[in-house]
Amino acid sequence: MTATDAKGAGAQGRARHLDLKVLGPILALLALILVGALLNANFLSMGNITNVLSRSAFIGIIAVGMTFVITAGGLDLSVGSMAAFIAGLMILVMNGLLPTMGPGWPLVFVGMTTALVAGVAAGFINGFLVTTMRIEAFIVTLGTMGIYRSLVTWLADGGTLSLDFGMRSVIRPIYYDGILGISWPIIVFALVAIAGEVVMRRAAFGRHAAAIGSNDQVARYSSVNVNRVRLLTFVFLGLLVGVATIMYVPRLGSASSSTGLLWELEAIAAVIIGGTMLKGGFGRVWGTVIGVLILSLIDNILNLTDGVSPYLNGAIQGVIIILAVILQRDRKAGA
Amino acid sequence: MRHLAYAALAATLAMPAAAQETQVIGISIPAATHGWAGGMNYHAQEAVDRLEGVYPQLDFVLATASDPAKQVNDIEDMLATRDIDALVVLPFESEPLTGPVAAVADAGKWVTVVDRGLAQEGIEDLYVAGDNPGFGRVAGEYMVSAMPDGGQIVALRGIPTTIDNERVEGFQQAIEGSGIEILGMEHGNWNRDDSFTVMQDFLSKYPQIDAVWASDDDMAIGVLAAIEAAGRDDVQFVLGGAGMKEMIQRTAENDPMVPANVTYPPSMIATAIELTAVGLTSNAPVSGEFVIGSVLVTPENAADYYFPDSPF
């Protein structure tokens, strides 16, 4: 009962401070853009904007899926290792089939299918263990995080898996080319974000996820199939990890045990900066996109300026993450 | 039944006699969590396989640890249950491993420390080390010789550690007064993705970069990809380091962007195991310090540093 009361109070508080809570992440982003533009003239150049948006795409695509998992009251710590494992698998499959299929788009298509199928399967395993086996999402994904990280190290024999050179020039355009000067990762990220926003706001699935995260008992009595929706959030996230990997592999054409390190924490941080509640019940996909951009911009600005010792990069990121969340905190809950 | 019992008894009686002749070398190294460590694991395994044939009286116990705490456990287990006569250890971190390794030395066992020194001096009998200041110095000297008229470079650093600091100091001393100016230095964390990002930002920030000291081959790969994607032709070359086989190969094939390399051989673990085996089995003295120099690899000598079977 107390939990429901707190939720009710939270909803009231949200209505009262609607402006700041919605504007918080946007203001933080605008402030960063202003700081960046003042510090370096190249900051707003087309090249730099393309760089920042393209490199945000991996975490961004994953973070959109993470928004749904967290909204439904779950968490997934395994996405970074999962991406590394899928990247390794994708490279192995393409290298293995290269002699028979030859370099070309059919083989790229096989690689993409591998990534998507592996992503869905990995997401399903996480979701199955969380829902049917009733194990805490934190523990399940902590376990699978270690499993995938070890598997990619093992596949790479401790070194690095590299895509065969003949294949690299074929697959390279997926990261570096695009339409009308906008690179593919940016386009895919935008499409995923728009689809995510629509599903979260308009589709029954989004509302069900929020209802489950808010109170799964009530959701169950309201004839929401709790397990099915929860499982689907994990499968959906796994699929998006596969999509992110398809964007990632063409960039350097390699995967190793250091691929995707800490991506899970960056994705979770972006989701929370964007205004989604870590305990579930409320999710905001466009906020997640802003959160991802804030995180990449901090890195970018620190690289473009000389004033700050690189040793302090992590500290500055931490301060900005906390500030962004303070800007939109629930005053009622603090009182 | 009785025969079986006798056989078992005979076996147990025979065991101590055999054990007296066999000496055990314990090897404790970090797991293959990045390229260099992967190569080091490969060379450790290869050395063990080879030396088991050379010295039938030696037994080897190889343990890889994914963090310092696990490495401490490994070493304690080796001492307690495997009854090792010598320990070859590449410490994950200096501080946490100093106590446990000192305990092995106090138990009267031979201790060989590799690469990363312990926090306290005088524990180990033999110290096989890479030359980090030398690694930076050789790289700096190459930069000076490749750009006699000076130039503007950017540098990528590794994970913030003593190793990285020593390398960077060695590099800075070597280029001092040569007219080579370091425009910027950022941490690429010995990681391809991080260095790709850092290099993209360097390219946005500086309109003219003559060369890059990537200081590591993983980072050099990220740097090269960023330069290629930006389509910049002002960067003349990228100097990596550590001798990854793909990069050594490019140097051997006279790739103008990868004209040289500086070694920091992961095979130093093999040197340490070999010297320890020699010390246990012969009268040849092997105690002291053995510093493995960092060598400049150029197209002329690249073939000597190319190990196609190693993962690194």
From TrEMBL, chain A:
Any Gene Ontology CC annotation: plasma membrane
Keyword field: Cell membrane, Membrane, Transmembrane, Transmembrane helix
Family annotation (PANTHER family): ABC TRANSPORTER PERMEASE PROTEIN YPHD-RELATED-RELATED (PTHR32196), RIBOSE IMPORT PERMEASE PROTEIN RBSC (PTHR32196:SF72)
Membrane spanning stretches: 22-44, 56-75, 82-101, 107-130, 137-156, 176-199, 229-249, 285-302, 308-327
Protein name per its UniProtKB record: Ribose transport system permease protein RbsC
Residues in coiled coil: none
One Pfam family recorded for the sequence: BPD_transp_2
Membrane topology: Multi-pass membrane protein
Keyword Membrane attached: yes
Family matches, as InterPro entries: ABC_transp_permease (IPR001851)
GO molecular-function term, one example from the UniProt record: transmembrane transporter activity
From TrEMBL, chain B:
UniProtKB keywords: Signal
Endpoints of the signal sequence: 1-19
Pfam family, one: Peripla_BP_4
GO molecular function per UniProt: carbohydrate binding
Cellular localization per UniProt: Cell envelope
Chief location category: other
Protein name: D-ribose-binding periplasmic protein
Highest taxon of source: Bacteria
CDD domains, A to Z: PBP1_ABC_sugar_binding-like
Domain annotation Periplasmic binding protein: ranges: 25-270
Gene3D superfamilies: 3.40.50.2300
Gene giving rise to this polypeptide: rbsB_2
The keyword Signal belongs to this UniProt entry's keyword annotation: yes
GO cellular component terms, A-Z: cell envelope
Family per similarity comment: Belongs to the bacterial solute-binding protein 2 family.
